[in-house]
Design a protein that fits this description.
Number of helices: 12
Membrane topology: Multi-pass membrane protein
Pfam family, one: UPF0259
Keywords: Cell membrane, Membrane, Transmembrane, Transmembrane helix
Oligomer: single chain
Helix content: over 70%
Order of helices and strands: HHHHHHHHHHHH
Number of strands: 0
Structural class: mainly alpha
Family: Belongs to the UPF0259 family.
Protein name: UPF0259 membrane protein BJP41_08740
Number of domains: 1
Strand content: under 5%
Radius of gyration: 20 Å
Shape: globular
Largest sheet: none
Distance between the termini: 11 Å
Length: about 250
């Protein structure tokens, strides 16, 4: 039987429906971890307000970002660096927790073993540092590709799409996983690219909805938590789709 996108979508929806409770717990856990790291390590609200005021004043002068940063004080520049580093780390850690958890769930089910949330978390903890490094490398390559031009970013995203699955399931090295992923992904690009573009479109829609919601400070963290959870749930669906395709290709 040939592998079709409709079959993969149907199998992925069925998996999500059957394991919905565990997947929701995992997405909430990853989203909560992201929000907590941001809350603990980001600058205080007073510092953020000063940065926002400075940003508005400089923007009123109609200058670029580079000039804007050069006109800030060393303390403000350090605050921006801290915000960027914290946001990047929390985002990467959230993605790693979700990817590791989802792959552990799918591997357990593939081996006909019962799925328990706490056991699932403990399963991938030993490989967490290497998985974090793999996700960091893949994310960096994709962002560089998107910055240079959109098409290279999509090509790189396609080439590394199977790398976390291969890394955890086959227990190979980071660069070996990327290499094997590239060979497998390009061969079946017609099944992967539409799913990835759909995921990116849904993610951009969530970001758009977030940007147009003007909320008070007390509800801001809760809204960020909700949007992160929805974003991770979309990523969970993409992972199920890719894992199902991977298993069918290996059969």
């Amino acid at each position: 039987m040939s592998i079709t996108a409709n079959r993969l979508y149907r199998d992925s929806f069925n998996f999500l429906r059957n394991e919905l409770f565990t997947i929701v717990l995992l997405t909430l856990f990853a989203a909560l971890t992201t929000v907590m790291i941001n809350h603990l390590f980001l600058p205080t609200q007073e510092q953020l307000n000063i940065l926002e005021t400075t940003k508005n004043q400089i923007e009123a002068q109609n200058i670029g970002i580079k000039q804007m940063i050069s006109q800030m004080s060393p303390e403000q520049q350090m605050a921006i660096l801290k915000i960027s580093a914290c946001a990047t780390f929390s985002m990467l850690l959230g993605h790693v927790l979700l990817i590791g958890g989802m792959l552990s769930i799918m591997i357990e089910i593939s081996n006909n073993r019962p799925v328990r949330f706490l056991k699932t978390l403990s399963t991938f903890l030993p490989v967490l540092p290497k998985l974090f490094l793999l996700v960091f490398i893949c994310t960096l390559l994709i962002q560089l590709g998107l910055t240079a031009f959109i098409i290279p970013g999509i090509i790189i995203a396609l080439s590394v799409s199977f790398s976390p699955i291969i890394f955890i399931n086959e227990k190979v090295g980071i660069f070996s996983a990327i290499s094997r992923s590239s060979k497998m992904a390009f061969t079946h690009a017609r099944l992967i690219i539409p799913a990835m573009l759909l995921w990116w479109s849904a993610k951009l829609l969530l970001l758009l909805l977030l940007s147009i919601n003007h909320l008070n400070i007390s509800s801001h963290n809760m809204m960020i938590l909700i949007f992160n959870a929805l974003n991770y749930f979309l990523l969970a669906f993409l992972l199920v789709y890719l894992f199902r395709l991977y298993m069918l290709l290996r059969a």
